[in-house]
Model the fold of this input.
Amino acid sequence: MAQASMKDIKQRIRSVENTKQITKAMQLVASSKLRGARQRMEASRPFLERAGEAVSMLAAGQRDSKSAFLRVDPEAGKALVVVIAGDRGLAGSYNANVFKLVEEYRAERDIIVLPIGKKAREYYGHRGVELRACDIEKVDGVEASQCDALARSIVEGYLAGEYTQVRIACTRFKSVLTQRPRWIDALPITAGEGADTKRQMLFETGADGMLKVFVPHYLSGVLYAAICDSVVSEQAARRVAMDAATNNASEMIENLTLKYNRARQSSITQEITEIVAGADR
Done:
């Protein structure tokens, strides 16, 4: 019995060691990808901030405009929800947190989902939700040109009346240990808090003409920045999850080794006892 128990423990130790090697390798890969993804994220944020300020100022100065981009009641129809998730799992609760955010909103309103990332396509492919196709297959390594084409497609659907609001569900990177799911309200554009409502902006082509040119570029930048932010968050979440898994594997190996040594000691003691008993006879 002791020999059989020792053999089982030894097999478990080897199995956990193999798992530990995998989780350690995934942690190193996530750490490597995190550096490059963080550089792209930091490069995209200034554009998003400046474009947001320009849009807020534009919306504040054109409150009487009849443009669809400044729609007064965006909740009158369906909402297009762009869901940005990961391409793979093993990233803790990263994907689940984004899906939970969307599901809470879905319970309140009729939505169309535009999934970006393999996990988002898999999740909403079996939820009975109306889907809108997306040409971006992977979020990791997405190009700005892909976001530009997607933004133009979204704007076309918005102007055609397929939906009256565009929201982006993504993840905000705060630190390696902290990532928060969040909403970005992309369309219609609105005046943010603190916007200068008294300042008037004049355009040679008119405000509506300016909006038709500017909004697709703005939305493209928003999508790219949101994807970059989400990719960094995914890699950070995976790094933390794999680090925790590696530590748990190390702890399990220590416990199993201790258990193996005790079983081995018990086996040796039993053998000595049997030898002594045989000698006494």
